[in-house]
Design goal:
Elements lengths: L1 H16 L2 E2 L7 H57 L2 E6 L5 H4 L3 H15 L8 E8 L2 E11 L5 H4 L7 H10 L13 E10 L3
Antiparallel strand pairs: 1-3, 2-5, 3-4, 4-5
The chain binds heme C (HEC).
The site of heme C (HEC) has 24 residues, from helix 2, strand 2, helix 3, helix 5 and strand 5.
Amino acid sequence: MKKKVSQLLIATALAASGAVPVAYASGDDAEIQARVDEAKAASGDFLKQLGGAMKREMQAGGPTAAMKVCRDIAPGITNDISLEKGWKVTRVGTRVRNPMLGLPDAWEQRVLQDFEKRAADGEKYDAMTYFEVVEEPAGKSLRYMKAIGVAPQCLACHGSAGQIEEPVRAQLKTLYPYDRAVDYKPGDLRGAVSIKQPFND
Ligand code: HEC
């Protein structure tokens, strides 16, 4: 009886998210694996470029200069990959500064919650990923997420009020009056790279 209720809850949650996982025949496995590998390579490259740019800009001009890495460079790269590949690539957050780009949908929220559970069980965010094939009214897609943990260098803009220097605080307040992406601590889950690849058939 208990089991039935929890299955029902899962089914309801999936239906509410508008995304239902699809069972696929084993003949599709190679294609799925190729798609996952491509998503993994793209998100790995993206995070590497971003990490490099953040380090460079923080060293060169501190957090006021490095603001452009999260504000311009990151969305610029995700936009480029989206156009080049025909995917939707974005960064989502557990708490969000820019709702336009960063607010997770129902599926992404579930995966973020699951990432936090996996971390509580000892898994590291560095290598944490998840994928699922989903069927929606507009068609089938492969969805992929790669976790992003909070590193010490993120606190200059995502830490506590005391960790964010005054000029940066003022800038953030002007640009993002509803900013929720603060008070993070090293080791927290900051969010994820999220990739949605439509199947063309
Ligand atoms: C110099 C300031 C600054 C630093 C340092 C910084 N960020 Fe950001 N971050 C921002 C800004 C500004 C935005 C909003 C970008 C936008 O407008 O899309 C943002 C947005 C994000 C988002 C998208 C979700 C959201 O809240 O809108 C993620 C994910 C993120 N940052 C992760 C990180 C990580 C991980 C680090 C450390 C490696 C980091 N940031 C360091 C300023 C910063």
